[in-house]
Design goal:
The protein is of the alpha+beta class and about 160 residues long. It is about 40% helix and about 20% strand. It has four helices and six strands. Strands 3, 4, 5 and 6 form a four-stranded antiparallel beta sheet that branches. The protein has a two-stranded parallel sheet with strand order 1-2. The chain is extended. The termini are far apart.
Length: about 160
């Protein structure tokens, strides 16, 4: 399984099969060179293996699942071993700030100690912002400081 940023629909339609193919090729290459990485590989061996992987990737397509968008995967990894203590309903928004995009997804949670955790992706809540890293940090710092200073005048 692999993740992608929150791409627009047309980009996602291109990226999913393209990345699935490349990950399938990577599976073949990793298997072919297993145990040889430390000693190094020759350029000619690498070139031959890459050509072979490109020709034979359909044989391992079944090993690579469809991609999941990053904020959905982040949510799943965070709650994989969650054990609810009391019954509740919540809305939770995941914000995944990466190197090139900031991705968002909102989930409705139903928590029940007897039934476990049920999670539902809120329709139309998955979005991406083409700003990330230091730029998002700067924007968030300004927002937080503005809010704190508005609530507590004289702190500046």
């Amino acid at each position: 399984r692999f993740t992608t940023p929150v791409f627009p629909d047309d980009h996602r339609r291109w990226a999913a099969p393209t990345l699935t193919r490349h990950y399938s090729e990577a599976v073949l290459l990793a298997d072919h060179f297993s145990g040889q990485w430390r000693e190094g590989i020759t350029v000619s061996d690498a070139a031959n293996a890459i050509r072979s992987a490109a020709a034979n990737f359909p044989a391992v397509l079944h090993l690579v699942a469809e991609p999941e968008v990053e904020p959905v995967a982040a949510f799943g990894s965070r709650f994989r071993s969650f054990e609810p203590e009391r019954r509740s309903r919540k809305l939770l928004t995941i914000v995944d700030v990466g190197a090139g995009t900031t991705d968002f997804a909102t989930f409705a949670l139903i928590v029940d100690p007897e039934l476990g955790l049920k999670m539902y992706l809120v329709p139309n809540s998955v979005h991406a912002l083409r700003k990330a890293g230091n730029e998002v940090d700067r924007i968030l710092q300004e927002l937080i400081l503005r809010k704190v200073l508005a609530e507590r005048p004289g702190l500046d």
